[in-house]
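Hey L., structure's done. Input below.
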Amino acid sequence: MNTMGNMEELSNHSPPSLAVGHCHPDIVKAAHEQNQLLNTNSRYLHDNLVDYAERLSKTLPEKLCTFYFLNSGSEANDLALRLARQYTKHEDVIVLDHAYHGHLTSLIDISPYKFRNLEGQKEWVHVAPVPDTYRGLYREDHEDSSTAYANEVKNIIEQASKRGRKIAAFFVESLPSVGGQIIPPAGYFQKVAEHVHKAGGVFIADEIQVGFGRVGKHFWAFQLQGDFIPDIVTMGKPIGNGHPIACVATTKEIAEAFGATGVEYFNTFGGNPVSCAIGLAVLDVIEKEHLQAHATEVGNFLMKLLKEQKIKHPIIGDVRGSGLFIGVDLIKDQAERTPATAEAEHLVTRLKEEYILLSTDGPGRNVLKFKPPMCFSMEDAKFVVDTIDKLLTDMEKESLNQKKTSTCST
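Output:
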C-alpha cells in the first residue's frame, strides 16, 4: 500500500483530491502509457471512455446509467444545474446554508459560503438549515431530527410556491463538508426528496469530496442514508487522484430531456483517453488495495482515538464522521457550544509546525477536518492524535497560567 514512512511525508498529505496517495505508481504508469499512445479531444470516440463509463456504472445504482465526462468538479456541478433546469423547466434551487459547490459564477450563486460575502442571495436561490444535530436547529435530543430538518425544506418550497417560484433542484453535498463535516441524520435525504419531487424538482448529490469509498461503509456517501438514489450525482477530485477529470451521472430520462434541446453538450477534453485511463487506474487501486475497507478500519481507529481525547480535553465538543471523513468540533463551553474559532486556528498553526496539515471548516471555522488520502495508516492516525493531545495539553496549561497571572494582577 502506498503509505508514508515519516513526519515529512505526512506534511504532504492532501485533501480528497489525492484519494489513493501522491504519485501512486499505478496511476503514473497508466497516464504515461496512454500519453505515449494517443491523447485527443472527445470528438473522437476512444475505448477508454466507454470502458470507464461501464466500470463506473457498476459502482452506482442501475438507475444512474448516463455519464457526462468533464475536467473539474465545478464543471460537473454547473452541468448538473443545467440538466435539472432543462428536465424540470423550473429555475429555483434549494441549497444548505454555508454550502460550497464550486467557483463558476453559476455555482457561486448557489454557495452561501461565497455569496454572503459577495453580491448576496439571488431571488431563485433558497437556503435551508444544515442538518447538524450537534449545533443546529434540531439537535441530538430531538425525537425526529430528520423529519424536522426535512420539514424546513418543505416550508421553503411552500413559501416559494406562494411567490410563483418553482423548484428545479435540491443541491446538496452528501456529507456537508464546508458546512462543518456534517453527518445528516438517517432518512433526511429520503424525506427531502419526497418534498422536492412533489414540487417537480430533482435531487442532486454532490459527491466531489466524499465519493469513491472515502466513507468506508459504502462507495458513495449518499448510500449512508440507506435505500436512497439521487436523480443526479456529481464527481470530481478523487476521480483522477489529482488529475483533472470529473463526471456527472444521471438517469436516462433526464439525459434525454437535456438532449432534446438539439444543442449538443460538448466538452473538449472531458473524457479524453488519458483522463479515462487514469480514472480506470484509480478504480483498480481502490479495489486492489482494498482502500474502502481500509478507510473503514483506519477511520474507526481514528474516531476511537479522537473520542478518547474528547473525554480528556473539554475543548472537544463533538467527534463525528464516517470512514476517512471526520470532523472535530472545538468549543469554548459545553453548555452553549460556542465555536472555539481562535483556539482552532492556533491549533492548526501549531500542527503545521509539527509537519501535520489540517484545516478548519464550519460557519465558526472551528471544526478540524480530517480527509486524508485513503492510504492514511493506523500509524499516521496515532501520530496525528498524539500530537493533537500534546498541543491541547500545552494550550490548557497556557490558559491556566494566564488566568493565574490575571488573578494575581487584580
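Residues 1-14 have pLDDT under 50 and may be disordered. The radius of gyration is 22 Å.

-- N.
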